[in-house]
Amino acid sequence: MEDLSLHILDVAENSLRAGARWIRISIREVLEQDLLELTIEDDGKGMPPDLVRKVLDPFTTTKEDRRIGLGLPLLADAAREAGGEVTVESKPDKGTRIRATFRHGHIDRKPLGDVASTVVSLLVACPDLELEFEHRRGEEAFRFDTREVRREIHPIPVNHPEVLHWIRSTIRGGLSRIGAVDKETTHGGGSREG
Is residue 26 predicted with pLDDT exceeding 80? Predict the structure, then answer.
């Protein structure tokens, strides 16, 4: 995966497969500590302790149609390559919390990528999802919550094309306002919503 937004999408899709109705995606940039932290939490079915211990192994998967699960191991590799790590906390019937850290300025840290399109892709796949997104950069923060959007647009569904366009533009604008857009990220051209 070429950027961190695709790792976020992969982990969040795992959350959806685990029955999550709520997902929280948090990105923190603490520049004075040379830290980039990604956290993805959900209220899905969670995992038993024996699976949590093995989940970063590529030959461990909960998918019945595959023998290997590369999503979390690839994220863990990306974190290690950039001087960080991945931790997994999960409880059956309570949900899961994945935390990945990276040295912010590490030469091998992948760019964040198009987080706005990641959020839109999740809402296209699961329009009833309650999704919270927060990006903090130093003292600045941008927050997005589908519950607030739904209150404003009711009865229009959140996956209406004009709403999705507005969501993508709002997130991109908010990230730009706090200076949280990677130079490598391009905002033209393709989208992931199909």
Answer: yes
Single-letter code of the amino acid located at 118: T
- Would the pLDDT of 189 be above 50? no
The per-residue pLDDT for 191 is: 43
Between 3.30.565.10, 3.40.50.1820, 3.40.50.2000, 3.40.50.150, what CATH number should domain 4-177 receive?
A: 3.30.565.10
Q: Please give the model's pTM, rounded to 2 decimal places.
A: 0.89
**Cα–Cα distance between 75 and 166 in angstroms, integer?**
29
